[in-house]
Design a protein that fits this description.
2 helices, two-stranded antiparallel sheet, 4-stranded antiparallel beta sheet, OB fold (Dihydrolipoamide Acetyltransferase, E2P), globular, about 40% strand
């Protein structure tokens, strides 16, 4: 579980995307991720949002950006991504059970 603390545009991405900075708590720290979620979410919508992510994959180069975690979501029929989020606030860094 992590909380998005900063969102930046990612104009060099092949498809529209944001650069996310996500706080996963004291043990894991802050990690960066690229996410193609610009159709459904504004930068303002995302700051402070808790999300579910995979943090134990190796970092992946996405153009000029190093993505350190994978933000999870569901792809609808229209190709739009809906983020996987908790329905109540949870401590950052908590693992999915």
């Amino acid at each position: 579980m992590g909380t998005i603390i900063q969102v930046d545009d990612f104009p060099k991405a092949r498809l529209p995307a944001y650069k996310l900075h996500i706080d996963f708590g004291e043990d894991i720290g802050i990690k960066k991720s690229s996410a193609q979620i610009t159709k459904r979410y504004t930068k303002e919508d995302l700051v402070g949002k808790q999300i579910i992510a995979v943090v134990n994959f190796p970092p992946k180069q996405v153009g000029p950006f190093m993505s350190e975690c994978l933000v999870t979501g569901f792809v609808g029929d229209d190709g739009d991504v809906v983020l996987a989020v908790p329905d109540a606030e949870v401590e950052n860094g908590v693992k999915l059970a």
